[in-house]
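User: I'm curious what two different proteins look like when written out as structure tokens. Can you demonstrate?

Assistant: Sure. I'll show them one after the other, since each token string lines up with its own sequence. Here's the first protein:
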Amino acid sequence: MAAVGLMLSCTRPLAPLLRPGVPKMSPSQLHTTAGCASKDYYEVLVLGGGTGGISMSARMKRKVGAGNVAVVEPHEKHYYQPLWTLVGAGAKQLAASSRATANVIPPGIKWIQCRVQKLDPDKNCVYLENNQKISYKYLIIALGLQLRYEKIKGLPEGFNYPKIGSNYSVHTVEKTWKALQDFKEGNAIFTFPNTPVKCAGAPQKIMYLSEAYWRKTGKRSKANIIFNTSLGVIFGVEKYADSLLEIIKSRNITVNYRHNLVEVRADKQEAVFENLDKPGATEVYQYGMLHVTPPMGPPDVLLDSPVSDAAGWVDVDKETLQHKKYPNVFGIGDCTNLPTSKTAAAIAGQSGVLDKTISSIMKGKTPTKKYDGYTSCPLVTSYNRAILAEFDYNAQPLETFPIDQSKERLTSFYMKANMMPFLYWHGLLKGFWGGPAPIRKLLHLGLK
């Protein structure tokens, strides 16, 4: 979210419930649960209680009323995952990234605490794992993506050994901080997989933070820091890539392009990489610390689904987020095939556009508001500096502030560490934040 860019019973009105002498309700009582009788039809059905799902449910509540909206989400907790970069580096506590799902779903909206089993857009319904069928008038798919650690031989069981962590999972992010603290000497390896990933800058953010930590603790001279990435470039936007390459050079970090992690031998502290430019060729690296960015892909329920493209991503128009085949189906966030980075900042920009799109469809009009691919990646380079990357579908900078955001700045770091989490919980999830475009226009005096 750049700069400033960055689960069923009836619910009664809150005011009478909060009168003196009347017991207060817990957050979960504000929503209904799957164990109670639920309706089998909603005007708007939202699949997923992550960033995209919660932000859109808030917007739809204002549009059609809380009783006409339901969110399907199995998990009890909601996480602000961008904070995990700092959790893995010991700069934030994991608890700070968590809220109860009951606290983030807008009051009055139905929370169906269950998993989606099948989507049937031809009949305007979905089937849940509890064998319930829910019909809808409009469907918003916000199912995120799936971490596939099992695609790497030796994982996830390898996380039971020391010296290995991953900032991408709530179960392994604190292992990163442990591995970072326990590092003594040798290769410190950071990986980037050969799949789409969420927050493509995160695999190297933890590398820069690790380097800074070891400098601070006097271990830097004993660390051979290596970034093995499946990509052919350090970052997809040239302006920010140039700045990152300068940092990499000044900090004596080794980058091996087109190297993909295929196996972890945790008992031997060995990582095996395939050379993507030499099919079949592999290299074995000994490590003193290993940070794994797992392969990722669409959720299983989307594979071979009518709403998905050949790769399993929800097939939507890249400008309106409306499904290409089903006009009453929409997608947002990581589960879609939008050709932009999968970040919370991108979801912010998408949510504002999707709100307008659905409004137009509801009125029988053609959507006119267009999503330009805006996304942001605050590239944390130390414990008090960050590069604020913002860009569009064309991999061109789309910066909020009238300064060169490719430079490391203290202000950019504090936006990442403090302002963006606040904006996430109190703006984006409540449906009030659609990205920094209006602020950008103001600060650039109306110029693009």
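Here's a second, unrelated protein for contrast:
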Amino acid sequence: MKLASYNIRKAVGRDRRRDPGRVIEVINSLGADVVVLQEADRRLGPRPTALPRKMLEDHSDYIPAPLAANDVSLGWHGNAVLVRRGLEITDTQRIELPSLEPRGAVSVEIDGKLRIAGTHLALMRRYRHPQMRALRAALARGETPTVVLGDFNEWSLTLGMEELHHGFETNVPGATYPTFRPVAALDRIALSPEVKLKRSGVHVTELSRIASDHLPIWAEVSLPAAAVPEPRSAVEHAPGAPG
């Protein structure tokens, strides 16, 4: 399976224009089975989604996982998960994370065989550590192979991820922030031992450099033979998004 993570900055690009169409175009170009999003909803009021559901339905091959706590958001604390049509969502979870500012995480189970979690951690490491502990505890309740993707807001390549080392192997695909000259690998992946990482990388295109202030990351993973989901029947390539 191919997984991806993308901080879409509420669909506001480097040019300060809010343009959900080009964000969807970047998402389509990833070619992933599951895409975890951060900052998918606005922060104020009822937190309306930055990616209209109708636009996703009409211009992508993805279905938002049912994670929102209201009728206007796409996710939980801005964390959303898009699943390609043809894959079955067998479980969802919203996870509260401790912080001075509202933070959370989400997870979805695909075909009962792979759990994918998405998160957006705090700016300060002293808050990220208890958040990772809470995330690890919430995900440890089951035995399903698990992959965590998201914006961990960690600038160091050697420190800061220790709380996930118990039970997960972390991966840094590359520098993702800021898009005009990436120097920080804020977006990362953590895999439980049952999940094998085949390849990972940063999705760099002319459009992804302007659609947000983060570049998307992706990972190709393999599961134990007994846990491999059935082949999907959906169309492989999604139609293009509006300009």
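A detail about the second structure: The CA atoms of residues 84 and 134 lie 28 Å apart.
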